[in-house]
Amino acid sequence: MFNLESPPGLRSRGVALLALLLPSLASAAALDSRDPVPAGFASPPYYPAPYGGWDGDWSDAYEKAAALVSRMTVAEKVNITAGTDFVKGRCVGNTGSALRVGFPQLCLQDGPLGVRTTDNITAFPAGITTGATWSKDLMYQRGVAMGEEFRGKGVNFYLGPSVGALGRQPRGGRIWEGFGSDPVLQAVAGAATIKGVQEQGVISTLKHYIANEQEIYRMYNPVQQAYSADIDDRTLHEIYLWPFAAGVKAGTGAVMTSYNAVNGSACSQNAYLINGLLKDELGFQGLVMTDWLAQISGVGSALAGLDMSMPGDTFGNNIPLFGYSNWQYELTRSILNGSVPVDRINDMATRVVAAWYKMGQDAADYPPPNFSSNTADRVGPLYPGALISPTGVVNEYVNVQADHKTVAKQVAQEAITLLKNDDSFLPITTSAPLFVFGTDAQADSQGINSCTDKSCNRALLGMGWGSGSANYPYLDDPISSLKRKAGNVRYYNTDSFPKVAAARDGDVAVVFINSDSGENTYTVEGNHGDRDATGLSAWHNGDDLVKNAAAAYENVVVVVHTVGPIIMEPWIDLPSVKAVLVAHLPGQEAGDSLTEVLFGEVSPSGHLPYTIPVSEDDYPASVAIKSTPKLSQIQDTYTEGVYIDYRHFNKAGVKPRFAFGHGLSYANFSFSNATIARSGGQLSSIPPARSSKPVSPVANIDTALPPAADAYYPAGFVKIWRYLYSWLDKLEADAAHAIGAAGSSKYPYPTGYSPTQKTNGPPAGGASGGNPALYDVAYTLSVTVTNTGTTKASGKAVAQAYVQFPEAADNGGFDTPVIQLRDFAKSDTLAPGESATLTLQLTRKDVSVWDTTAQNWIVPNPGGKYGVWIGQASDDLSVVCYTDTLACGNGAQGP
Ligand SMILES: *[C@@H]1O[C@H](CO)[C@@H](O)[C@H](O)[C@H]1NC(C)=O
Ligand SMILES: *[C@@H]1O[C@H](CO)[C@@H](O)[C@H](O)[C@H]1NC(C)=O
Ligand SMILES: *[C@@H]1O[C@H](CO)[C@@H](O)[C@H](O)[C@H]1NC(C)=O
Ligand SMILES: *[C@@H]1O[C@H](CO)[C@@H](O)[C@H](O)[C@H]1NC(C)=O
Ligand SMILES: *[C@@H]1O[C@H](CO)[C@@H](O)[C@H](O)[C@H]1NC(C)=O
Ligand SMILES: *[C@@H]1O[C@H](CO)[C@@H](O)[C@H](O)[C@H]1NC(C)=O
Ligand SMILES: *[C@@H]1O[C@H](CO)[C@@H](O)[C@H](O)[C@H]1NC(C)=O
User: Fold this and answer.
1) Domain finish residue from 561, 589, 610
2) Residue 292 lies in a domain
3) Is residue 763 a contact partner of residue 856, using CB atoms and an 8 Å limit?
4) Average per-residue pLDDT in the chain?
5) Which DSSP symbol is given to 459?
6) How far apart are CA 669 and CA 132, in angstroms?
7) Nearest CA to ligand 1 atom 5
8) If we measure between CA atoms, which residue out of 288, 331, 335 comes closest to residue 310?
9) Which residue, judged by its Cα, is nearest atom 10 of ligand 3?
10) In terms of DSSP H, where are the helices of 359-442?
11) Which residues cross the membrane (predicted)?
12) Tens-place pLDDT, residues 18-55
């Protein structure tokens, strides 16, 4: 989520806000203009919104929810489907309540790496760091720890994980909030996070649905359409939708739509995306919410399947922050006047209540919020947005950290990726004379939380900026840790190479550089969220710092803190650059996690969650940031199709500097003795038919037009200015009801609109995540990994399994990427000579392609020769197994 946009060319947020607001008074017409969506791209109608409550896993929750919603008035149902305010409650989002029937206000809080804007929490490593561990266990353990913290602060909804941005655009501002530029890495890490968080009773909110791959022009505002990501059906299914399917299968209670449009239609009201793909095909049972201020219509978004408007206020067509809403009182009106069918609000409210029951939040011990997003003071206004507000205790400073720093450090450490280590230069000894360069080695001397939402790149980079950041409770920085551990450390806290004494044999220079990005809310050193100003180069002349150090010292170790890929060509081949460690975005545990690796207490075991190219020109041209300002809608056509990151580099035959999945260790690992077995018989080409949809308890909730009196403000009610209510004045309610009761609503429904529930869902559906048969394990593989290192180093190995489909001619004509990641496993620490057997699995979906005609996942040639390549990087695959012969071989050369 966000605050307000920061368009290029405008320096301060205040100016940006004014610039956005003023023209809206003069000309609302600008909003309607847009470039035509490219030929062929269109978002088909998909109506009505399918009811939730037909997936068995959710039946109990839905039975209870439907019973509760049956007792609600229309004003109560409406109240729980939207926020009551913008920056007025304790959390970044606060729903209305239905206290009469025992349903409380719910607190929604950012962000993906920890509880935002509060104290006494853990600032966990970012998503990209978590992805770089390639450890399913750590992905889950981090989720568990975050879930405990959100619950401890009284948060109902964790606004994460983020699996979109997926990483299509390497300059994209928020790629660090997710787990890496591959759908399977995102899917596995996202699902593990959801499981960990929700097991603590907190509802996770999978986001941003979908294709929020760049920051600039992401948002509809009074003068600008959000950009449209124009994506073909197969690419959407095989890349961008894939992690959402996994998250829905993992049971996520909520999904957040993105700011941008797809095929010209805003994601917050795109019926094909929400009703069709998410709720029908993926069988999503939870609730769909907007990103903050992303709602741009009332009736339209309700019909398109949206269930919750956050934070409740309007933005797109009106002035925000003045107490206007597309829903709340307007939604009540549109139900009374018959434009939004009663069964739609029944379903919306039931989805919200069902998610609450599903996670056990009805339990008496689920705490209400005990912190405030608005102030760090103990006492503050209870309604901060109101002109006059009663005050009370708003911050109880509940410490929710427990021992979570242990898992935070473990993630930070296991993510550290050794890219280069000439002559096994690392590890070094603690007695080596160390000369440390770069402001990135030390915590910000102006305060570790001195920039709001980390909207500056000063000193150590532990996380990107924006709503995905959190306050550090403390920051273990590398320089303090180095000084604690090593005897002889000289630190030059500068990014301009200083005058230094002539180097002596054995001197080691450690150079810290970084690259930052974040949310478009803030512009940092000319970067509007995306890295549009700095590109993929290190910030603050980092390249020169490394080059100068390499000229002065024979032994240079480069440490990189970064949001995503950076170009290393200016220095990577210099002979004195002996080693390079990418520490990603480590969060609060940046120090010891790194130095234990430098000094060899543990071996690095991280692997790149993206490709590092030789040049930015090596990417497809279509993945550049679309930053040319327009008063019309920017069209971003995904002409590269499924060929992003390594899928592109492999297809184009372009050798990257470091391949996706690359990561060295102090140990040496060899893979051997692989096996492959079919689980079940030979696959059929088309998956077994889905089962039919059981009737949802939502169908039993009364659909009669509610009495107008149920919507009246209570007698003598005193409104708080700018607070959003679901009630209407008596005259308004009566007028709307009269229209509804006459049954002659003239609402201009979209083409293709129908209020009648479809009885059978799409063939690719059938349960949460889609047809359950897609997740049947088709092949189980095992591989033995042995630490063959000649040194004494122990370490953890990662086995990555990539599928190679048969050639198009043998694959029903489907062109597929050379290889695609499908599973991975990380070993425990292996001593020299020690072995472990790792198990990897391929599901039916893993060997399927999306057939746009059949609208189903098919295996074009079930008996065909699929290669399953196993190794420790996408360009280091020494073992291969084949699905036709069920034979495996060693010493192979990866494709
Ligand atoms: C976008 O348009 C393409 C091309 O017609 C189509 O294949 C795809 O399903 C559409 N996607 C959405 C979400 O509307
Ligand atoms: C809506 O929620 C607010 C905030 O909790 C509450 O004050 C109000 O009474 C609720 N309205 C209804 C109809 O319950
Ligand atoms: C805050 O949370 C703590 C522990 O989770 C709980 O004991 C306390 O009652 C909560 N405070 C409020 C005001 O609910
Ligand atoms: C019903 O109310 C909604 C919300 O104000 C409005 O958009 C819609 O046009 C109304 N429908 C009719 C038939 O008046
Ligand atoms: C953490 O909570 C304690 C009270 O338990 C409080 O004194 C302290 O200020 C809080 N820390 C921060 C950073 O606010
Ligand atoms: C090879 O794998 C098989 C089957 O998993 C196992 O029985 C055997 O012990 C393994 N051999 C070695 C050398 O690891
Ligand atoms: C790992 O193997 C490579 C070549 O296979 C060798 O050059 C290197 O010395 C080995 N490293 C260790 C730590 O054993």
Assistant:
1) 610
2) yes
3) yes
4) 94
5) S
6) 18
7) 41
8) 288
9) 370
10) 404-415
11) none
12) 333 333 332 333 333 446 788 889 999 999 999 999 99
Mean pLDDT confidence for 550-555: 98
- Specify the CATH number for the domain of residue 679: 2.60.40.10
Q: Residues, the chain, total? A: 895
Q: In 3-state terms, what secondary structure has residue 849?
A: strand
- Whether residue 880 is contained in a domain is answered as yes
Å from CA of 756 to ligand 5 middle: 54
Give the Å distance between the CA of 367 and the centre of ligand 3.
5
What sign has the CA pseudo-torsion 418, 420, 423, 428? Answer: negative
Q: Is the CB of 120 under 6 A from ligand 5?
A: yes
168 and 253 inside one domain: yes
* Cα gap 127→131, rounded to integer Å: 6
pTM (2 d.p.): 0.96
Domain count of the fold of the chain = 3
Q: What angle do CA 761, 764, 768 make, to 5 degrees?
A: 75
Kindly give the distance from the C-alpha atom of residue 666 to the centroid of ligand 7, in angstroms, as a whole number. 9
Instruction: Give the tens place of pLDDT for each residue, 686-740.
Output: 999 999 999 999 999 999 999 999 999 999 999 888 889 999 999 999 999 999 9
CATH code of the domain containing 729: 3.20.20.300
Judged by DSSP in three states, 895 sits in coil
Tokens of 301: 């978004």
Which of 70, 75, 74, 69 lies closest to 103 in space, CA to CA?
69
Distance 269 CA to ligand 1 centre (A): 15
Strand residues in 576-660 grouped as ranges (E)? 577-582, 635-637
Q: Residue 272 gets which letter from DSSP?
A: I
Report pLDDT for 40.
85
366 within ligand 3 shell (Cβ under 6 A): no
Substitution site in 97, 103, 308, 718 for ligand 2 pocket (most atoms within 8 Å of beta carbon)? 97
Q: Which residue's alpha carbon is at the smallest distance from atom 9 of ligand 1?
A: 233
Most ligand 1 atoms within 8 A of CB, residue of 258, 263, 279 to mutate: 263
CB contact at 8 A, 123 and 472:
yes
- The phi-psi region of residue 38 (left if phi > 0; otherwise alpha if psi is between -120 and 50; otherwise beta) is beta
Q: Is the peptide bond before 208 cis (omega within 30 degrees of 0)?
A: yes
Distance CA 662, CA 596 (A): 21
| Residue owning the nearest CA to atom 4 of ligand 7 | 668
- Which range of residues forms the domain containing residue 551? 416-610
Query: SS3 of 263, please?
Result: coil
* Three-class DSSP category at 147: helix
Lowest mean pLDDT among 196-210, 292-306, 462-476, 738-752: 738-752
CA distance 693 to 272: 19
- Mean predicted confidence (pLDDT) in 7-20: 33
Q: Which residues pair with 95 in a beta bridge?
A: 83
Report whether residue 780 contacts ligand 7, using a CB cutoff of 6 Å: no
**Angstrom distances, CA of residue 381 to CA of 374, 526, 546:** 9, 36, 50
Residue nearest to atom 4 of ligand 3 (CA): 152
Q: Can you tell me the distance from the alpha carbon of 802 to that of 624, in angstroms, rounded to the nearest whole number? A: 27
The residue to which tokens 């109902």 are assigned: 156
**156 and 273 belong to one structural domain:** yes
Q: Are residues 268 and 236 in the same domain?
A: yes
779 shares a domain with 735 = no
Do the beta carbons of residue 438 and residue 512 sit within 8 Å?
Answer: yes
Asked, for residue 135, whether it belongs to a domain, the answer is yes
Whether residue 606 sits in one domain with residue 515: yes
| Whether residues 342 and 447 fall in one domain | no
Are residues 588 and 554 located together in one domain of the fold?
yes
* Residues 6 or more apart in contact with residue 867 via CB below 8 angstroms: 803, 804, 880, 881, 882, 895
Residue 335 maps to a domain: yes
Distance in angstroms (rounded) separating the CA atoms of residues 289 and 203: 13
**Residues tagged active-site:** 291
Write down which residue in 591, 610, 629 finishes a domain. 610
Residue type, 833: G
Quick one: 682 and 715 in the same domain? no
Average pLDDT of the residues in 494-509: 97
